[in-house]
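FORM 7B: Structural annotation worksheet

SECTION A. Query
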Amino acid sequence: MSALIAMSKLTAISLLRTINPIKALATSTILLLMLLSPDSSAHNRSQSFSTWTFNEQQVSMVFTIKAREVTRLMAAEILPAETIFLNHLKNNVRVQANSLPCSIQGKAKPLLAATGYLRASLNFNCEPSTDNTNHDIQLDSFFGVAPSHVHYARIAIDQQASIEYLFTDAVRNHQLNQQQLASTNSLYRTISQYMALGMEHIFGGIDHIAFLLALLLLLRGLRDVLWIVTGFTVGHSITLSLAVMGVVTTDTAAVEAIIGFTIALVAAENIGAKTSANRHIAKLFVAGLSAMILTSIIWGFGLTALSCAGLVIFTLAYLPQSKDQSSAIAMRPLLSLAFGLIHGFGFAQVLTEIGLPSNQLWPALLGFNLGVELGQLIIVALAWLTGYWVYSRRTDRFGTAIQTGVLLDIASALLCGLGLYWFIARSYGVA
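SECTION B. Predicted structure
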């Protein structure tokens, strides 16, 4: 039996050394499309938002969440999604004032929300107090059905100032002291809070991480890495700022779908550049996009025909120019800048949903950007160290050296398949 296992391992290693990158690309894509569940998503992770206002003995909350998240609550109940959502809020959000529970006024009320979202208000009445009031917010919503759920709460101090808190499965309670809140309305606190929010967003955004990894796989030197990081930073900073300030508005679903496309295209380029096959890969991408255009025109669903046509033009203009590894590396800073513009709209989603303090817009935006960049640099450093470790230990126990290039081909193929899955699933509203 041990001899059979050893022979199997040697056979697997041999296949790894001789695998055709193009076949790896196709095979990995098919496997991922077959094995990944429709619930798998990255940028669309489970999250919700709320805004809170305090007025004498009155506490008001407005809660916003994606409608599909409510389906997690519908397993045991046959009720409309909105009704389940309203009942869930009433049973899982509690407020205390100076350790005394605040009573809920009436029922949770539905509010007008953007397409694909549910929104509701819930009001609390607290006992009057002459002392400094300490409020405790206990929020248990959705953590029971989605332990990875995160909730962003914006606490309004007055008409111009606010503070943001993060609720997780491990941290479901926050205590708020009105005097302390007012005294902490500083530039430093605003920057640090949004910096933490930016780091949390980049670490939780698996699709953004996948894109960074796809960019890095082809590179060999630190200088190339710095150019890539700079291009991506400049790109997403521009669109993040424009989107948050309301200068540019985008279709969130389309942006999330195209983010998947950026991952797939870069990963495919990694493989095609080594085999001079990017011209053929471009044809495959264009064929698939053309089919999506027909679907959009004839049946009227999926990513818009105009968006797909734009991706066709970009693919035909870019991929054939990536004739070999050297030319691909030379063009990668421009590619990271262009696709950084797309990812910037994705970064802006969380800020537009939670809102920004009107009197400290630029410090909040700066802090969020700094958090994203710090998280990005940590990811790049970890990826670089991991690559070095793999390279230094690329000899298995049988003494057979596995070529580093083959491992990179396999990693690129897997990332390409993952990106295509996100692109297709998000285009048609599956993920």
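SECTION C. Observations
The longest strand covers residues 47-55. Residues 47-186 form one domain.

SECTION D. Sign-off
Analyst initials: ____
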